[in-house]
Amino acid sequence: MIRFQNVTKKYAKTVALNNLSFEVDKGECCVLLGPSGCGKSTSLKLINRLIEPTAGDIFVNGENVSSVVPEQLRRSVGYVIQNVGLFPHLNVAENIATVPKLLKWDKARVHSRVEELLHLFRMSPQSYCDRYPHQLSGGEAQRVGVARALAADPAILLMDEPFGALDPVIRDALQAEFRHIQQDLKKTVVFVTHDVDEAIRLATKIAVINHGEIVQYDLVENILTRPAHPFISQFFGEDRALKRLARLSVKQFLRKTSGEATKIDTDSALKLEDSGKDALVKMIGHKLMSVPVVDDDSQLLGEIHLEDIINS
Amino acid sequence: MRLLKLDKVNLLGALFGTLSLCFCSFLIYRPHRLAAGTPHYFVDIASWPESLWMAALWIAAVVASFIAREKRPFIQLLVATTLTLSLFWMIGAHSSRLFEAAPSYARISLGLGSWLMFTAAFVLFLNLLEFLRRSPVITCLCVVSLCLGLTVIWMHGHLNHLSIVIEFYNKKERFMDELVAHLTLAFSAVGIGALLGIPLGVLAFKRKTLGAPILTIFNIVQTIPSLALFGLLVTPLAYLSLQVEFLHDVGVEGIGWAPALIALVLYALLPIIRNTHAGLGSLDKGIIEAGVGMGMSRLRLLFTVELPMIRHIILNGVRIAAVQSIGNTAVAALIGAGGFGIFIFQGLGQAATDLILLGTLPIILLAVVTDFLMQAITFLAKAEALK
User: What is the ipTM of this complex?
Assistant: First the structure.
């Protein structure tokens, strides 16, 4: 869906990006991860031609972006930036309607699309449509920012540290919401962040970038278990095993109980949507080698064993 | 304590007014137009209830300076309105009384104290815009009653014995002509200035290489004294008028409205260009990037995002240009462009103070009213979200 082919970007004497080649498949969420100044934002802006490469080609849907009129290209690609960039003189509805208006949709269609998107982000159109950006909380503003990027239903979404300026609690909620929405919409997402946890949480694949070069580009699982370079082990930290566990569902470790279902009621029990890390936390907290897993009706489903987690 | 929140400017104005009432001449009596005057003090010529009333009003203005902002609009505005109307009424009453006992060619003009009290009363009105924001109904009522009161005092002929009013009636038709000339010249200069200045400001911002030269040129223009600029334009325009028949036909000459208008437009440009330029520079880069990133064309971005967001800043530049233009137009009378400057220069020539005032006062009044109206418009134009 998106392909970088030997892309280089130079500024005067510094090389921002050096011979970058990678590909993002349809429906994937590709996270560009790296320290600040590594060139990840530059890579993102090359896709919608906010920046032009010095050498190399970028293809979107098999078409070289340099052959597409920039405005046309940008209208077909959603774009979310860190400080939201909502237009302060326009209300929420008008902000979301920006791209549909550029595409000259008729009023009724724009209107219904705005309502649909606000519903998607669980914001009621009645109370939010007429509000101005300064009347929104940081989290609400960023939701509107994402909704605006999704307005014309683009197949590709570019996100440049969209949750970077939010406080941890709200960032956490928005990440969860984004994952949830992404599961339904299956957009091809290129997501820039310097936050390792965010990358692990949202990515299908991570491209770790340092000094304008890709150090490793692989599925999250592979990067965590088989880091290709000391820089990656260092960047992801000693606790990367824990981070990986946080991504894994307890379902993977579940040893099903045979026999009839029993109802148990204990606060040490896990639920199916919990992660491997949650299981470990329960084991340590309750000094157990194994913990039970229950469904929503507290029916026992099986057990998680510490050895399975350690051996995973 | 919130109730005792001091408004220093207001207090200064009120004290100033009180002192002027007590210690400065109220009216000046001259046996004829060119004679030296004898001052009359308010306390000497007014009856004691009148003195008490005026003193009470000024003291009320002093007290009003101490009342909390939340409560002040009503009191302060009421005091200021009553004061202004009373002042006009007293001036009218006492000038008429003095006039009755004098020969018909005697002149009665305002003394220092009266002028100072008008200035002080004006200071009390300085918060008008804030009043308007806080309690629009009361403010409008006060302004309307002030205008009505002044009209009644004027129509009643109450002020007719003041020398400046006599001067006005002597020149009434001329006055109206010059009013139209002054307004036409000043405002067409601002209009043209805005039409040229906003695009130039945008250009100066978007093309950095042009920005510095444009701003420098108009900065230099601003430093040329208005009289010099008018003079500089006379010769080239006279030449052009002789060479190009079309220009001659539309009335362009070395003197008259053409050089005046050109000079005034040149002066009006700087504040408008500078505010447009600075306004565009003050915009959040993220907002611009978001607009471009979503596929807005440059023009679309300019007209739907950039200009709407800075319209109050541009209007503020237009306001400065308008006030400045009204003042500069006075000088344009010297090159035959008309306007209130005519009276000023006639008065200077004849050493007739009243004639000078007949030119000066309307200019001040126009500038103050324009300034206030433009401030109100600027406030309303400021996008709701940015207030």
Answer: 0.79
